[in-house]
Amino acid sequence: MSAMALAPEGPRTLVLESTVHAPLFARRFLAGCFAEWGIEDDHLGRLVVCELVTNAWRHGEGPIVVRLYLDERDGRPVVEVWDSGAGRPVVRPPDDRAVCGRGLLLVAGFVRGCWGVRPLNEGGKAVWAKLPGAE
């Protein structure tokens, strides 16, 4: 993945209803933004935004806000997903018997631990992940 240029207009933002269709719309949004930025490989970005939006839909509250931007310091893409729920995401330990709950563990591994959660002033939280740069 390589970022060709920084997005001059700032973060791209998409507001979604909290429905089963939100992850699909978020993946399409990310693919379009990455194409505009000249990032050819959007596979990891689509996986990350899908997982974060799915978590917001399943465990959060209110509308879901997706923000995408390129970090000014290193040009790496950042995915942020906001919701108004009070709960915080937790990386669960691996459990071979579980039928769900592995997504955030996978995301943390794929982004090499470069993710986090921050509270929003208006309530809720933003979960973010910075995608690795081109190797």
TrEMBL record:
PANTHER family: ANTI-SIGMA-F FACTOR RSBW, ANTI-SIGMA-F FACTOR RSBW-RELATED
Signal sequence interval, chain numbering: none
Natural source organism: Actinomadura montaniterrae
SUPFAM superfamilies from the UniProt entry: ATPase domain of HSP90 chaperone/DNA topoisomerase II/histidine kinase
A Pfam cross-reference name: HATPase_c_2
The organism's place on the tree of life at top rank: Bacteria
GO molecular-function term, one example from the UniProt record: ATP binding
Domain Histidine kinase/HSP90-like ATPase residue range list: 26-129
This protein's UniProt keywords: ATP-binding, Kinase, Nucleotide-binding, Serine/threonine-protein kinase, Transferase
Protein name per its UniProtKB record: ATP-binding protein
